[in-house]
Amino acid sequence: MPDLYIFKTQVGMFDPVALQNHNVCIHYVHKAYYRKVDFLEGIPPFQCIDITAGLGLAAVTPSGRVNIVNLEMANNEFGLWRWYPIDDAQIRLYHPAGISKYQLRNLQIPVDMNILFRDPNLVSTEIAVWQNNRPAVEAINGHAFLLGAVRLIAIGYRFHTVDLESGKEADPELVKAIKIDKAPCTDVWCSGRGIGD
């Protein structure tokens, strides 16, 4: 099996976490879904959201929380994304929409446009989105002037999967082997976890 895993760093475009016919275990909150990848494609950089919806963000103000619907995936699909802001605001991420990401006990760490200098491969911004469980963001304008927009760019991969636990592609023996580490499988974390979970 190729050397594929989440949060991998390298020069240039990052690798997918799995290739066609590879097994994955999708972890979403407290559930695990055993799947096999049957299709994947790279998604070039695109503007996934303007948090202000074109209205701008007033000086020294946080925005409301906004769902990133453009990162929502179809049924049986997950997306692997790295992202960054292109406007000078701090961004707080929630994944899914109700669970804080980059959350310490007393602080939620925001991401700003300087992430491209601190982490040029964007490893620290990598998230995976399972089906329609979209992430959400808030922007913080710490400046004494209005920001005309707060846009985020995303880049990544789209994976279509088949269910190994039920349906016509079910393979209970393979799932059993994966669970006892006798068959290869890549774990993909598609959500944050609440503090204390």
Give an account of the 3D structure.
With 197 residues, the protein is mostly beta strands. It has one domain. The chain is built from 2 helices and 10 strands. The strands form 2 sheets. It has a 6-stranded mixed sheet with strand order 7-5-9-2-1-10, with no helix packed on it. Strands 3, 4, 6 and 8 form a 4-stranded antiparallel sheet that branches. The longest helix is centred in the last third of the chain and has 8 residues, at 172-179.
What oligomeric state do these chains adopt? Answer: single chain
- The biggest beta sheet, please? 6 strands, mixed
Which of globular, elongated, flat, extended, rod-shaped describes the shape? elongated
Span of the ends, CA to CA: 32 Å
Bin the helical content. under 10%
The ordered H/E elements are: EEEEEEHEEEHE
Count of DSSP helices? 2
Mean pLDDT: 92
Q: Record the strand order, biggest sheet.
A: 7-5-9-2-1-10
Q: Kindly estimate the percentage of residues that lie in beta strands according to DSSP.
A: 35-45%
* C-alpha-based Rg, rounded: 18 Å
Q: Briefly note the structural class of the backbone.
A: mainly beta
Number of strands: 10
SSE layout:
Elements: E1 23-28, E2 31-50, E3 61-62, E4 66-67, E5 77-85, E6 90-94, H1 115-118, E7 127-130, E8 136-141, E9 151-163, H2 172-179, E10 186-189
Parallel strand pairs: 1-10
Antiparallel strand pairs: 1-2, 2-9, 3-8, 4-8, 5-7, 5-9, 6-8
